[in-house]
Amino acid sequence: MPAENHADNCADSHAAAVAADRAAEKHAATNLPLALLCGDPAGVGPEIIGRWLAESPENRRGVVAVGPRRWLDTLDVHGEAVGEADFSAVPGQPDDAGQRVAWAALEAGAAGCKSGRFRAVVTGPVNKARLARVGYPYPGQTEFFEARWGEGTARAVMAFAGGRMKVALATWHIPLTEVSAALTPELLERTVAAADFLARKTAVPVLAASAVLAETAVLAETAVRIAVCGLNPHAGEGGLLGAEERDRINPVLDKLRVRYPRLSECLPGDTVFHRHLCGEFDVVVALYHDQGLAPLKTVEFDQSVNLTLGLPWLRTSPDHGTAYALAGRGVASLASWKNAVALARQLSSGTIL
Fold this sequence. Notes:
Blueprint: H1 3-31, E1 34-37, H2 45-55, E2 63-67, H3 69-72, E3 79-81, H4 96-114, E4 120-123, H5 128-133, H6 141-149, E5 157-161, E6 166-169, H7 179-182, H8 185-201, E7 226-229, H9 244-256, E8 263-267, H10 269-277, E9 283-286, H11 289-300, E10 305-309, E11 314-318, H12 335-347
Parallel strand pairs: 1-2, 1-4, 2-3, 4-11, 6-9, 7-8, 7-9
Antiparallel strand pairs: 5-6, 5-10, 10-11
Helix pairs in contact: 4-6, 8-9
């Protein structure tokens, strides 16, 4: 056999072995259970999880519930207890002990992924202000998982997916006065990459809680159509209403367009979501929290899912709060929780970005 043919065969064999190893790792990761975290024990999270688990035996396969022991005892599912053994929540009446349970559940979920016990986490809603009162040092859950899984580097992206809309946020829980300075080239590139990932991985609809969830599929072999909101009114109007788009943001997008050929320049935020709903774009990059979430929650408050992307493991969550006024009444919608689990199962087959 000629030497060059032998070398080619060796290279092919090595590539095949690497591919087989990666496939085995992906299969192993997919076979791990999801961790279902209780959230605030006094909110709607525990009862939503319990009602969803009771709906079908299929829902109880491949999941581990994480929360207080007395709650776990009411569920017919594998569980991991956190907090004091005798802790019992009163629906609608949050307290400091419950916040410590919610925090402990987050820690258990994050540690379980790192130790190879869980493949992803689906988190119940928490109360950020009450968590802060017991020493929780993060403004939200996204920042918590970035700290636990990102090894000190800012790699997470907060994103949202519903049946009709997909949004990635460049900045999250910071004051508006700090947004402009935070929009670095690295941050914009990371957010655009996450938006591209989200649109591709959710091209086939999996959000099945409502008949409304019929979306236009994005073919995997075609470039994703990514819209980017401007920071200022009318995307700066050529510099008349602000220069960030012209001087800082659009030059970065121009460079990224080599990799993402259907990436827009900065577009006016007051019309871009309408264009997204009409099918012109597959996903929208919003530059700050309320710019993206006001339209998303207006259109599909009960359907959308919060995702933490860009980290070695995936976290999803229903896109609503603790809803103390509804806790214990059995009337809270399960739709967003169902979608959060469906997306976690679909996307948690390995590294997220």
